[in-house]
Each structure stands twice: as C-alpha cells, then as structure tokens.
Amino acid sequence: MKKLVLVAVLVMLVLVMVAPTASAAPPAAPPASGGYWYHVNYGDTLAGISWYTGVPMQAIINANGIVNPNWIYAGQYLWIPAYAPPGPYPGPYMCSAYHTVQYGQTLYGISMMYGRNMWSIAQANNIYNLNWIYAGQVLCIP
Q1: Of 18, 22, 45, 139, whose CB neighbour count within 10 A is largest?
Q2: What is the residue range of 80's domain?
Q3: Looking at the whole model, is its pTM more than 0.90?
C-alpha cells in the first residue's frame, strides 16, 4: 500500500514539473487595427480599467470575449481596442452655437443666455437629467 501511494505521489510530482507554464508575455495582437495590451494588476477591475483607459467597459468585454466581467485576475492581459468616442452632438440637430459649461451654470441659465428652450438643448445633447451638467462640458445649442 505504501508503494502505491509513493508511486502516485511521484507521478503527480512529475506531471506538475512537466506541465506547460503560462507565459507572461502578451499574446499576439488581434486582427483589429489599433489598440494595445493592458496588464491587469492586483486590485484592478474592469470599471477601473475602463475609466483609466477611456474605453467603455463593454468595448473591452467584447474585444476580449469576457463572459463574467467580475472575474479578471492579476497577471492577465486584456486587449484595449482603439476607441473614438462619439461626437457630443449626435442627431439631426444643427448647432447654432457651442457652449462650454462653466462652474455654477445651470441648463436653465444657459437656455436663457441663448434664448432657447432648455428641453431642446437637453435633447440635442442627449441629457436625460436636466440637473446634471458639469463644468467643461461642451453643449450644442440648437
């Protein structure tokens, strides 16, 4: 019985030593043009990587075929695709002016400055909460 256990332990030890190990080098680039490899560090999350790189989380998930976005691990390489954000003025709206929001300004105040309805400004800029604009945001004034 002792010989059988000893043989089993030796076989397992040999298998562990012979088993291929994972390489730390990033895999070859995917065929899509543009992008780069990101090395996942301890404590990274997809949301954090998305914020850091400026690429939407869904684009990273799609580029890497991630099934569970909550399961990434340190040492993993993720392909970060090239991403051009959509223009801030989607839709059929013709902008008569562009306004950069200053600290303390409200959508109502901006609409009064340009003599426009604040609802039309919100619709032209895909704003769903009229109270949520921020300093530095560029608004299309229809």
Answers
A1: 139
A2: 34-85
A3: no
